[in-house]
Amino acid sequence: MSQELKVLFAQATLKAFPELTQEEALVCSGVEDPKNKEHGDYACSASFKLSKRFNENPRTIADKIIEHFPKDYRVESLEFAAPGFINLRLSDEFWLQLAIADNKIIAEPVMTGRDDADSGSFASRLLKIKGDCFDIGDWKKVRKEAGKRLAGN
Description:
Blueprint: H1 2-16, H2 22-28, E1 31-32, E2 42-44, H3 46-54, H4 58-68, E3 75-81, E4 85-90, H5 92-100, H6 122-127, H7 139-151
Antiparallel strand pairs: 1-2, 2-4, 3-4
Helix pairs in contact: 1-2, 1-4, 3-4
């Protein structure tokens, strides 16, 4: 996942700063786990690295990268964090997709008692997931558990 996000950050960086080469954009667009998970799921320090090259404030650099970041269903938000990080949060849709992809079970939604779900619908597929039970609305708990399980792989 971090490699895919690195490519998205590099694309945004190239659009924001067309004077960079593709290689330069890739080198400065590394993605890492933030030191504090409350800040997001991933962090990129491109704005800090590029601020020296362009002699601009890291926040100004970050704003330009964020403005050019491609739309992607996996990304919920991007925000600047001093001294020069762009923190990224993965979307709820990403976590739902992950929960049912490749038979990797992360969460099971709580049954609502509704019988009207179409047998081929996304909701009915979610209801068939086997695994630990979480309230589908409790994304913090789902993310925490998903993070633990993915770290073990």
